[in-house]
Design goal:
- By secondary structure, the chain is mainly α.
- It folds into 2 domains: 78 residues, Rna Polymerase Sigma Factor, Chain: A (Orthogonal Bundle); 92 residues, Winged helix-like DNA-binding domain superfamily/Winged helix DNA-binding domain (Arc Repressor Mutant, subunit A, Orthogonal Bundle), CATH 1.10.10.10.
- Helices cover 76% and strands 0% of the residues.
- The chain has 7 helices and no strands.
- The relative contact order is 0.08.
- Belongs to the sigma-70 factor family. ECF subfamily.
- This is Sigma-70 family RNA polymerase sigma factor.
- One of its GO terms (molecular function) is DNA binding.
Length: 180
Amino acid sequence: MSEDYGDIEDLYERYFDDVYHYLLFFTNSKTEAEDLTHDTFVKVLKNLDNFNHKSSIKTWILSIAKHTSIDHYRKKKFISILPGALTNKEQSKYGNPQHELEHHQNWEALQKALLLLKPDYRNVVILRGLKEYSIKETSEILNWKESKVKVNYHRAIQLLRKHLQMSEKGAERFHEKESR
């Protein structure tokens, strides 16, 4: 670790307020700001050796905070797009059977919708959305430009949302017929 900046504790004490307040304004939530501040300083710790001095350390740390908050909202957005399919963690075998059934049905609906996507779209959704790789990592894995990852991911999510909505409507019609 560079002697210019001291240890991570010094950086934390020096820049905590700046990072926390930035994230508080960004999220408008104390809890999320606290969590994201923690995540930011974990990333600072992991990447301090990679700091290239092209900016001040404060600017670099706030840039990490910005990217951390953007990633957080992307994950939130992705989870909201796929209702219930990704938000339910594995249930205990002794958990609520209704929840287990819903989780299983949501997962099956997601898998079926993924299979309806062309392979390029399926790959980008799996890597970006399910496995949570960065755009850069995804572009390297797929040997694509980053712009192609962004465009295909956006298009794939729109199609996936459409397929999931259609499957929900089909299930509703099935249940209506069943209850008659």
